[in-house]
Amino acid sequence: MSRILVVEDELHLAEGLRFNLEAEGYQVQVVESGEAALEQLKTEPEAFDVVVLDVMLPGKDGFTVISELRQAGQFIPTLMLTARGRPEDVLRGFAAGADDYLTKPFELPILIARIKSLLRRREWLLSAAGQTPAQQAPKDTYTFGDKSVNFDLLELRVRDRVFPLTLMEANLLRYLICHEGTTVSRKTMLEDVWNLQEDTDTRAIDNFIVRLRRYLEDDPTRPRHLITVRGVGYRFVAQPKTNS
User: Fold this and answer.
1) How is the beta sheet containing 78-82 ordered, strand by strand?
2) Which segments of the chain have a pLDDT < 70?
3) C-alpha triplet 240, 241, 243: angle, nearest 5°
4) For tag attachment on the chain, is the N or C end more exposed, with fewer CB atoms within 10 Å?
5) CATH architecture group of domain 3-129
6) Where are the domains of the chain?
7) What CATH class does 141-236 carry?
């Protein structure tokens, strides 16, 4: 039976979520603050399979909670809930490390479908991690030079180091790789990767690129794979030219 932690300070909504998720066969625990969620997750990191995390919480908000979890190396699938549906807030949630984002008010079947999707990904990652190296034939891997990204496992390998990726980091990197050698505008990335059609502060894209450069580039201040095209966007280069 899958276990879900609901972090929600609105009592009527929290209890409604508990009732409906338990009716679906899940074990559910509710906490009302970001601090309580962090204490629970850091004390028992394997106790839950999915977190449903509200953004507007007393004390530490949802953005802070997910950011602290990711910084601590905990990548439990997390669905963020918010009454703030602005594109900037959606991108901020993804940038902090959320796996999915749902705006209030939402329809219960949509919430349950999103949770099931996160659980399927978690089951795949756990089953893949239990296989031997010979069995782990990556189905969705891209290799360039001494680096490779496994989109199934959400891992980027750079020589002997492994960097876990959030789902949105992996989606952005995949998109740039698929357009290798082509300059892609920030607006296009917002529309194609995040399905955000409205005018949005594109600095969120820049923040994602900064993080990916920290993983990919030998010198992030002088990138050779993720190239800035001033005034336009970015271009991915798999095999940069060597300096003569």
Assistant:
1) 27-31, 3-7, 50-54, 78-82, 100-103
2) 85, 124-139, 197-202, 243-244
3) 125
4) C
5) 3-Layer(aba) Sandwich (3.40)
6) 3-129, 141-236
7) mainly alpha
